[in-house]
Amino acid sequence: MNPAPANAPRPSRFRPWLEEHGSKLLLFARQQTRSIADAEDTLQNALVKLARKVEEGTFVGDQQAWLAFIYTQIRREAIDLGRKDDRRRKREELVVEDKKTLGSDIDLPHFENNENMDETRRILEVGLKGLPKKFSEVIHLKLWGERTFAEIGEALDISLNTAASRYRYGIEALRKQLATARLNGDL
What we know:
Shape: globular
Radius of gyration: 20 Å
Helix content: over 70%
Oligomer: single chain
CATH architecture of the largest domain: Orthogonal Bundle
């Protein structure tokens, strides 16, 4: 039996790292996906890929490099999941249309999300979802992911300056959006 590489995510090394960064990673995954369940699945898939790469010895880098990899992987997993969900939704819509055309009664399930979120989190989440994705993902990586603009640029395949300007523009747009919502009594 081969011993695990020195940088392998053994429970003794991986658990503290995940406890330190897990909530930030889940928050980032939540902003990249359409539901908390999708965010959890996306994060888990990204963590599994990281663990496999480290265990196989194909991952070069320390725990800081794990963060850069995991943010990029969460984004990729979320994009793939979104595309898969869109394709599934289109197929389901075609089935519904076919059944309506044939005159069949359709009983479609309705799912309710009964999460209890505190008001501030709800307001910020709605506000960030209202921003263009290019702004919201930079804001998340900067504020909750505690990444530098250079790290954000690397994770999103954009320049450091683009990451910084997207952050500034995104924060300004979020301020305006929240101020308008407050004036309209939506908050």
